[in-house]
Amino acid sequence: MNDCIFCKIIAGEIPSAKVYEDDEILIFKDIAPIAKIHLLCVPKEHFAYLSDVTAERAALLGRTLEKIGKLRSRLGLDDGYRLVINQGENAGQTVHHLHIHILGGEPLPWGN
Ligand code: 5GP
Ligand code: ZN
Fold first, then answer.
1. Parallel/antiparallel/unpaired status of strands 37-43 and 81-84
2. Are 18 and 44 in contact (CB under 8 A)?
3. Ligand with an atom nearest the CA of residue 34
4. Catalytic annotation on 99?
5. Residue 55 has pLDDT above 70, yes or no
6. Distance (Å) from CA 23 to ligand 1 centroid
7. Cα 44 from chain centroid?
8. What is the position in ligand 1's atom list of the atom closest to the CA of 84?
9. Side-by-side strand order, sheet with 25-29
10. Which residue's CA is minimally distant from atom 24 of ligand 1?
């Protein structure tokens, strides 16, 4: 999508601190971290909401969760982490390209 900031990051048009990339996902550092480790995991395919998920996208999200679990040590998350997906206005979603916040690196207060 032309005006999507995460599509631009995926395309390399906007710089980001990448920590992992493969053919289907990119993980990079959040520009405004709310935890010691705050990463964003984005599917390379643009879609905004879980309500846009098809069977293929559900399979992609499943592989993505599996990948995050396997990358745990490499990402510095051995002591635990939290995944957050904001959806819509009430959740404060600001970027309308589905993304998983990965939070960790310290004890996390509930409600971040
Ligand atoms: P949301 O509120 O939509 O769930 O989260 C969007 C996240 O994207 C925010 O935590 C925000 O800090 C992050 N973000 C927005 N623009 C950029 C950017 O240009 N680069 C990076 N690395 N993160 C961004
Ligand atoms: Zn996008």
1. unpaired
2. no
3. 1
4. yes
5. yes
6. 21
7. 11
8. 4
9. 18-21, 25-29, 37-43, 100-104, 81-84
10. 31
54: CA distance to ligand 1 center in Å? 24
| Closest ligand, as measured to the CA of 35 | 1
Class of domain 5-104: alpha beta
Ligand 1 pocket mutation pick from 13, 16, 30 by most atoms within 8 angstroms of CB: 30
Q: Which helix (H) or strand (E) holds 92?
A: none
Pocket lining for ligand 1, CB < 6 angstroms: 5, 14, 16, 28-32, 40, 86, 92-95
Q: Following DSSP, what letter does each residue of 66-95 receive, concatenated?
A: HHHHHHTTTTT-TT-EEEE---SGGGT--S
Q: Which residue's structure tokens are 């051995």?
A: 78
**Residue 42: pLDDT over 70:** yes
pLDDT score at 111? 62
**Close Cβ partners of 77 (under 8 Å, ≥ 6 residues apart):** 37, 102, 104, 105
Which burial class, exposed, middle or buried, applies to 7 when counting CB atoms under 10 A from its CB (0-12, 13-18, 19+)?
A: middle
pLDDT digits (tens, 9 = 90+) for 70-90: 999 999 999 999 999 999 999
